[in-house]
Amino acid sequence: MTTPYPVPPAVEEPLGAVTRVLALTGDPDGGNGADSFTGRSLPQLSGRIYGGQVVAQGLLAAAATMIDDGDGARLPHSVHAYFMRGGEPDDPLRFDVERLHDGRSFSQRRTTVSQNGVPILAMISSFQERQAGADVQLDPPEVPGPDELVSSLEIFRTLDHPVARFLGRTAAFDLRHVEGGVYLRPDGRGVGRQRLWARARGRVPAGADQTVHRALLAYMCDQVMLEPALRSQGLSWRSEGMSLATLDHAQWFHRDVDVGDWLLLVQDSPSSTGGRAMARAEVFDASGRLVSTIAQEGMVRTPSSAASGPPAGGGPGRWRIRVAGDDGGGG
Length: 331
Hints:
Layout lengths: L14 H8 L2 E2 L8 E5 L11 H13 L10 E10 L9 E10 L3 E10 L2 E12 L22 H6 L4 H9 L2 E5 L15 E8 L9 H12 L5 H6 L10 E11 L9 E11 L2 E10 L4 E12 L30
Antiparallel strand pairs: 1-2, 2-4, 3-6, 3-9, 4-5, 5-6, 7-8, 8-10, 9-12, 10-11, 11-12
Helix pairs in contact: 2-5
């Protein structure tokens, strides 16, 4: 039985709850030397598993199968995941890892995540040894610093709403939008771009290595990836009748990242059509280093009555919570 990837627990909540759920256990039923793990999920008001959690867990399951050949650890540099079904938070998750290839510099793994024998996510991840090479990147934009912006936590604490109270207690990352959030009302400009700062709420354990930090970044980013699409369509998280789910997620890790420090996400949504929205993000650390690039497509549906124009939003509507594949993969 393969040893699960070591994820040291954070001592502060709510980050501690995330590190505990990312710590998978070996599955003795894997058999025949299979690389199988089991995991659980954090509770969600939506009744569906949060997609970023499953991607992060799947990445750590794949990382557990890496073998150090003497040239140093192989770190994840890319992840490509497809969500097929919504998961049930109360049911255990099974992670089956297939060792596709181990080359001189790169390794690839396929991870299938299932519940009750039914797959809910399939992903391929690639790992690379640390190697020398050209170091070139885009420059980050000039934006106000996080200390100049309003924290999402401050917004949640001003609201008498069950979702706001839930997020105020359980959100493991502090998010600060440069253009203001779309929690309560649409952006109003119809522009599919946003910039925000993010940082873990609590100290990341000193024993957390780079693979754990990259998994935590994958965990965090799923909750905000489709917000530029909401902005471009004149929607907010409280737009009446909106249905939203992640369809697929692709992420590249360029440089080492520390989720305990402020990270700047520069996001846009180049297209929305057919009930699907595309979104992209570049992630910079506080010193301006580009640490990750992300692309995601999601299902964003609104009532047919809104076909002639975007919903007004901002009223006492249902506040959506990010989930994965809660429409059966958008089928």
